[in-house]
């Protein structure tokens, strides 16, 4: 099972690892699960594009809402592209490339014998799957090799030096997959451009769907904060007609929205990033606290600065991110720490006020 954003890395890692394990360990059944409702699959434009290209049709895929809740409690779970999950007690193996969140309560619920392969030095979880795929002679599948190869190329920004989104393992796996597919590295650029175009194709999506397209949810005891990742800059998104209505629909039950924008130039592959913090309930101090945490972060340093042209859209905070190597997997832990610190400082605040028609009998003098 991949993560709840179901981006290309997450979806491909789940499908390909399940195939490899199903062929090698026939005494068990391995079923890949895309960790989204089936209705959201059309939002994952790059996933659908690559799956169709490699001969995988939607009807053969299983989604989170296809699995009965009672069944989930009775199976072993392998997590790919994330390692914090409410299914932690059932998890037997993890493949991930995100910074370790070993302080998370659910991480501490992992079984003692759970196998961990968490390597933040790689740019793509598909690289970790490719290591397993290539470690033995069987099984072999052109479709699996294509899926893994394409995903690593996209996740590493086609090994762009400026992005620094790759390590030696990513390069080694791509080269081995290209050898198996009889491809040359010169063909990577056209593949990368094709996938970037598919990911950025939001022509058939509403603005609310654009926000939901690559969404993750950060949850604490008192807050639910959605983090939207978009294939366009936030500054450009808020200029679109209907943007405010879409933002309100997207964050209807949240105090804070974090929106991350990224634009990849089709001409030279240059990456631009920006982010927005918006409070639908007008909690300006809350927004400032999260902004301060992001601005002061040194691990990594995000190099956030105001946009050249200021915007008053919904009273939000809009910042240009000059360290384009930092991604959501780096930003999410910073936001979470800021939320927890805010909650600790406001431990006596109440989310609800109760009014009694009569004086309550509390047993106090």
Summarize this entry quickly:
Belongs to the PPase class C family. Prune subfamily. The protein is built from twelve helices and eleven strands. The chain is of the alpha/beta class.
Structure characterization notes:
The protein folds into two domains: 8-198, Alpha-Beta Complex (inorganic pyrophosphatase (n-terminal core)), CATH 3.90.1640; 207-346, Diaminopimelate Epimerase, Chain A, domain 1, CATH 3.10.310. Helices cover 36% and strands 15% of the residues. It has twelve helices and eleven strands. The longest helix has 18 residues, at 328-345. One of its GO terms (biological process) is compound eye pigmentation.
List the helices and strands and how they pair.
Layout: H1 8-24, E1 33-34, H2 45-53, E2 62-63, H3 69-72, E3 77-80, E4 91-96, E5 115-118, H4 125-135, H5 142-155, H6 168-181, H7 188-200, H8 207-212, E6 215-219, E7 224-230, H9 234-237, H10 243-250, E8 257-264, E9 271-278, H11 284-296, E10 304-306, E11 317-321, H12 328-345
Parallel strand pairs: 1-2, 3-4, 4-5, 7-8
Antiparallel strand pairs: 6-7, 8-9, 9-11, 10-11
